[in-house]
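During the second year of the project, the team shifted from modelling isolated chains to modelling whole assemblies. The rationale, set out in the original proposal, was that interfaces cannot be judged from single-chain predictions alone. As a representative example for this report, we include one of the complexes processed in the last quarter. Its constituent sequences, exactly as entered into the pipeline, are reproduced here:
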Amino acid sequence: MDTAVRAAHAARGALADRTVRSAFLRSAAELLEGAKDHLVEAADAETALGPVRLTGELARTCYQLRAFADIVDEGAFLDVVINHPDDTATPPIPDLRRYKVPLGVVAVYSASNFPFAFSVAGGDTASALAAGCPVVVKAHPDHPGLSELVAATLRRAAEQHDIPKGVVGLVHGFEAGVELVKHPLVSAAGFTGSVRGGRALFDAAAARPVPIPFHGELGSLNPVVITEAAAAERAEAIGTGLAGSMTLGVGQFCVKPGLVLAPTGAAGDRLLKSLTDAVSNTDAGVLLDHRMRDNFVAGVAERAELPDVDAPVTPGAGSEHTVSPGFLTVPAGRLAAEGEHDLLLEECFGPITVVARYEDDSEAGAVLSRLPGNLTATVHLSAEEAAGEGRGAELLAELTPLAGRVLVNGWPTGVAVAPAQHHGGPYPATTSTSTSVGGTAIERWLRPVAYQNAPEALLPAELRDENPLGLPRRFNGRLER
Amino acid sequence: MDTAVRAAHAARGALADRTVRSAFLRSAAELLEGAKDHLVEAADAETALGPVRLTGELARTCYQLRAFADIVDEGAFLDVVINHPDDTATPPIPDLRRYKVPLGVVAVYSASNFPFAFSVAGGDTASALAAGCPVVVKAHPDHPGLSELVAATLRRAAEQHDIPKGVVGLVHGFEAGVELVKHPLVSAAGFTGSVRGGRALFDAAAARPVPIPFHGELGSLNPVVITEAAAAERAEAIGTGLAGSMTLGVGQFCVKPGLVLAPTGAAGDRLLKSLTDAVSNTDAGVLLDHRMRDNFVAGVAERAELPDVDAPVTPGAGSEHTVSPGFLTVPAGRLAAEGEHDLLLEECFGPITVVARYEDDSEAGAVLSRLPGNLTATVHLSAEEAAGEGRGAELLAELTPLAGRVLVNGWPTGVAVAPAQHHGGPYPATTSTSTSVGGTAIERWLRPVAYQNAPEALLPAELRDENPLGLPRRFNGRLER
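Output from the structure prediction step:
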């Protein structure tokens, strides 16, 4: 681990040139695509996620690398601000020029459930390299072989641009992961995983003699609210859609809808009937590892035996390696105040969701007000509500404090790589206010520096008046594209 | 404390409208100016900083409140990014619209040394209110009366705009401060003060069940490097300038130059002669409180008795309430490796600096490489070096990793309120990558939220296609002013 961190640290100068960084990221995408068949086969052997999903995930990963290459080339992320001297200010303003510089070596903790997109060549690595930061990746033990293959591919891409291969380090094992976040030459960390593991590393990052930023994506319940009018309008479509979202990838998504507020009454009953039919017809699937399978089976059992909890379709163990999807129901009133049912407000990884039936808006609101932070919050509205009649806007405002992404009439599974994406949310969804997906993920690995009265001849090209690199910037107050 | 936090939390809705926020900030500036004589008198009675300095500081504080009002009106800080659906992306991009929302109640810990600009109505409060966050300020015990007066003034300004007066809370006492950062309704904290106090609060913020961002400005040595050529060119001007900067405000600035790398030899000797003359002719002054005076006297004594440390002008106790300025010298080689002289690499608050005499560039570089993080780093260059000949650019690059602001041929005391300002730096200068002065200080109190497929009728006005509020934004990839 120490060797990997030192090699990464020594490689940081080779990333200083933005044109080299973007070319490196594009080469990485190209080489990963070139090795697609081999990589997908290796990934499937270790994760059982299947070639269709894995091929798509690799394509997403390469798209993401190229998206960050475009961001590097554009340079808006440097946040250039230039102030010429201004004696009318109080106190007077000297010549000040600010932009952002890379933090240094970034520790990346891979996730199990996205062996490409949230692993060695995933969003944390892509955004860190784009920012000019070498990475040392802690490989996830569920796909160590694939991790080695992907790291080797990234290093080949680096060598094409004369970047030392140490720019992407890879370490294995629990101890190495724990020590990595404490290494004095590590300047920041990105993490995707469980609340328990992420919190332990967050605590270690904060307890260092020199604390470092720890951007962890931990756990999320991803609540879904279905209005009475929406259920009345399209109970069947919503029930079927929910079944698809909660069982997608055998429920192994951080944005799986884990709590659904559905109305009591006839429309809600129809919705549950559709959900029951669709989930009953969904095949059992293989979870990523046996520990997850054990946790799922135990977590389901513990939840199912709570008072007033029913299981229209019982989730649980399937064959030796599989689990079968299902869902629980509970009166929303049981969740409106602290008690043993709070267990239902904790994420249960795998193909299960909890449908809380509410009597009225205030009961639904009482449950929402008790939720911890989430990556997403979703509301299903009727056509009239979506058009602005009724409580649509109010519900959107009610969901906003709960999550980093708020969806209307959709499902949270599926996280687009886009400039406007925000994949993060109040704790425990994320340990910071940052995103791990989308263009602004690059901000995590930078810090600002201002130069005062530095002569033009000594200024970095990014900060010169004539703007030789054509960067978007704020120049004497005015935004320039 | 609990009452203050709850009142602040209850007031947050009143800050939702940006036009109300900017008007509130402008009224606050106006009322503070209106009460100038009274406030300056009260401040001087508690701090002994003198009416000239305090009048200037109040003007700065009002300028800062208005600068944030302008930032609120412009709205670029909302970081609006809009993506229309794009099926050509991998995976396809839905309609996504992102902006930033206020975090919630902000705890502000005031500094002793700026009773206006880094206290109740200072930069943390101004930027938090600008972001839409109510504040609860922990008053500094060195100016409790002034804190009450300023808080009352801010509340009068709030009431002019129908904002509940709880929007600015004020608490006194060590225990209240410790409990404040742990309060479940506090969402973030800003701090200016000592490493010990700041680190304790940072640790408490990180250890909460729900950790919160803690933006603390702690300690800084603010190194100054004087090249051989600069000393040869203008030893006297540099020596006099340094004396002015290190004794300004009786050395009670977080950006006081605390370590100066000056060359050995004749030019360096001339520089020291000027410094000696100027410091000897500087009057003793009153420190903010007796604890600081005791720490200063003890800190000086401990440093002065280290081997090879000389005191051309001995800093120390003056009369009962004052201290007299001075400086120490040490061969730079003593600081190039770990040892007892490391004490000289720690901030000593008050009118003292340490001049380390270096033999050559590599010795100076060795000292720089051992420094902890700083708010500022300064280099004095000759005219030729400033024009690009010699090591100027190299030195700038060497200083950049050490600090958040890098100055050429100037002095770090004096922190302009400007869009390009960065007043922060690697730990322990700051506990995060943020700034506490300048336009981007507002970023500390916001988090992004993305809306997915939200119908136009329900979207906040900030995120609508037609841009009714005229906000700068990124629209389908393109930056719009």
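Residues 41 and 51 of chain B are 7 Å apart (CA to CA). Chain B is about 35% helix and 20% strand.
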